[in-house]
User: What shape does this take?
Amino acid sequence: MKRALITGITGQDGSYLAEFLLEKGYEVHGIVRRVAIEDPEHRLWRILPIKERLHLHAASLESFPSIYRVLQAVRPDECYHLAAQSFVAYSFEDEFSTLNANINGTHHMLAAVRDCAPQCRFYFAASSEMFGKVEQTPQTESTPFHPRSAYGISKVAGFDLTRNYREAYGLFACSGILYNHESPRRGYEFVTRKITSHAARIKLGLAKELRLGNLEAKRDWGHAREYVKAMWMMLQQDRPDDYVIATGEQHTVREFAEIAFAHLGLDYRDYVTVDPQFLRPADVETLLGDASKARRALGWSYQLSFKDLVEEMVEADLQWLSGAPRTRV
Ligand code: GDP
Assistant: This one.
């Protein structure tokens, strides 16, 4: 039985990936903060339905000794490093802790894997935010990086660290350059979930308006459940490499809001207002990925429509607000 270790297992991607790997017959281990283990209802809700089948280890990515101990105990065949401070807007409020946590966290994982489990295949969650102020459209694996936030900068550093561990120490280390990927498990601070949860609240009479920032920002939004499969596929190849994972389709925040409200029979223009507090000092205006390499080399493809993604999220929020248990999606 293959053994996998996931950092960020309590998050959107970690929870989908854990389900996917269990399904494939893996023994799945996860690194979680001690506070999360002590507060399962709130902090582990995404993995509650599968919690008994997982092996959770309390450790902090900021502490090398604690990471080293977990790697030594688990000695995984595959390691998926997904944990990070991943909210771009917050990375402007606290650049220092975003850079520290994200860069050191990745460095600690790579060093511990090299020392304790050198045969382990390593996946790093890189990001389309590395392209930032894009230098070409659509972006591919060879498009130059131009990050626009501490988050983006931390991901470029993680990407470089991962590549260097591959080249310097022969580690089977890959980076997935994933474009925005959403689902009913997305955090409420991200614009997609903020829109779907507010639209549902407005529909039920629980809220009156939705305040957003830049409505013209364009993103290439896919479904997280499909994207975690690509992570696994990268680690099953003969050679380690880096891949763009994207839908190849772009929409504005405005369009996302329009479809979400329309699904509930509402016109977003009656409820959405622009509030300057949600504008960023430097925003990423447009992202569009070209995933041809992943299609060719991994056989990964994306089938869902944008409308289906938006509507699935709206429906889930509507159900939860009407009292259905959250653990169902
Ligand atoms: P990101 O692409 O990782 O930064 O994901 P987000 O979902 O946080 O933001 C996507 C885009 O939506 C960015 O260009 C934001 O500036 C824009 N946006 C507009 N209004 C909002 C808002 O109220 N909250 C967030 N999070 N983003 C917003």
Q: What stands out?
A: The radius of gyration is 19 Å. The longest strand covers residues 121-127. The CA atoms of residues 17 and 228 lie 5 Å apart.
